[in-house]
Amino acid sequence: MSRLDLHLHTTHSDGSCTPTEVVDLAHQAGVTALAITDHDIMTGIDEATAAGEQRGIEIIPGVEISSLAGNSELHILGYFLDWQDSDLPERLKTLRDSRHRRNPRIIERLQALGIDITYDEVRALAGTDSIGRPHIARILMDKHVVASAKEAFDRFLAEGRPAYVPRELPSPAEAIRWIKAARGLAILAHPTWIKVAEQSLVDLVRQLKDDGLNGVEVYYSTHAARQTREYLSLAQQLGLLVTGGSDFHGLTKPDIEVGIGKGTLHIPTSLLPKMKEAAGRL
Ligand SMILES: [Zn+2]
Ligand SMILES: [Zn+2]
């Protein structure tokens, strides 16, 4: 059975497998076309494309951009991007730099609260360029300031707590605009994660469509059958494309596998020609 998987992370963002390893896993799972969609970065596409050529797997250049609508983080997937010949790489770099500005500010706030912690300690523990609040929580645990990561978030790091610093993220409309400027398709990722009531989701997606959204990620590892049906009908009602992906991260989300998610995910290959047609890439 041939499969699609249009949502995959690699070591270029927070996944634990290299692009080549992801392509090999996809090959084993019977995936015939896949998209690498690392968070706010596209540097893994080259290696995946080379590996895909060897394995006979079509690689669609993709990205997953974090955006902020009110208090809710929305992820916008981009596909069929002119990922080398556009402003997108530069825009994403600016976005990543803003994350690097955020972490030192969190540390400053913790220091102001009298906690003995330095940014160097956090960097040494993380061992990667992709530093996040979980790393800071671990330092606070090591120093016995808190007993658990949950306590670190509840007392200091979560929204509304004294060391919280909001991320500087683009609006969904802006993220969509960036993707369109790179001649890509803009797709709303995993609607299950969006913190709005069912009716407001329809209004939200309608608004995003006005902003240029092309489709909705209907098939997803953690969508219950009822949700898949609901999002499918939403996409049909609004005349939007339907896509799907596992959101594979490797060891970071060990229960999710390439191509099959938690074991029951099946993304129809018939979605791909419709996407290509919409992107003008047939
Ligand atoms: Zn996401
Ligand atoms: Zn993702």
Describe this structure in words.
By secondary structure, this protein is of the alpha/beta class. It is built from ten helices and seven strands. It has a seven-stranded mixed beta sheet with strand order 1-2-3-4-5-6-7. The mean pLDDT is 93. Bound molecules: zinc ion (2 copies). The site of one zinc ion has 4 residues, from loops.
Overview features:
single chain; 282 residues; alpha/beta; TIM Barrel; DNA polymerase, domain 1; 2 domains; seven-stranded mixed beta sheet; 42% helix; 17% strand; globular; binds zinc ion
Protein topology:
Layout: E1 3-8, H1 19-28, E2 31-36, H2 45-55, E3 58-69, E4 72-79, H3 88-112, H4 119-126, H5 133-142, H6 149-157, H7 172-181, E5 185-188, H8 198-210, E6 215-220, H9 225-238, E7 241-245, H10 271-279
Parallel strand pairs: 1-2, 2-3, 5-6, 6-7
Antiparallel strand pairs: 3-4, 4-5
Helix pairs in contact: 1-2, 5-6
Bound molecules: zinc ion (ZN) (2 copies).
Category by helix and strand content = alpha/beta
Mean pLDDT across every amino acid position: 93
User: What does the overall shape look like?
Assistant: globular
Which sequence of strands runs across the widest sheet? 1-2-3-4-5-6-7
Q: Would you identify the CATH architecture of the largest domain?
A: Alpha-Beta Barrel
| N- to C-terminal distance | 23 Å
Strand portion, in percent? 15-25%
State the major sheet. 7 strands, mixed
**Runs with pLDDT <50, length 5+?**
none
Can you give the helix content as a percent range? 40-55%
Total helix count?
Answer: 10
Radius of gyration computed on alpha carbons: 19 Å
